[in-house]
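The protein record filed here:
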Amino acid sequence: MKYFLVGFMGCGKTTWSRKLAAKLNYEFIDLDHILEDKAGMSIAEYFSSFGEDAFRKLESDVLKQTDYPENVVVSTGGGLPCFFDHMAWMNANGKTLYIKLSPKTLADRLENSKTVRPVLQGKHGDELVEFITAKLAEREGYYLEANHIIDGIDLSVEKLETALGITAI
């Protein structure tokens, strides 16, 4: 089975994908890492060198052309579900799970994150919360197309398994 975890940046997609894959003894794929390998540079560098349109096209190619193992948990980029037919493609090729968090919680996490996120440069406090609130309003309709939705607060691998309908063998 293929599981695609989606949600806003900072919701924990990579962390929880890795933990779920380990628990299920599945492969783990981070599409952002594959994109960076393919591009030969960081996402931030690619974005600033070629712009968002080129980035989204490359991101789409990476999603659809990656050779996925039979059993895999995939961490997607925060914007990936919101472009082209990506949510429909992921839903047709596996199960999707949206890790849902409030703008305030996301802002708190992102403000303390060590990951460089160009789109957030210089935004702090209320300005960051307002930015995330606006972006989430644009994106959440796509995220809500996921097969499963889970509250990202107090998340555990067991809660992920339950949300995805995974039962122990």
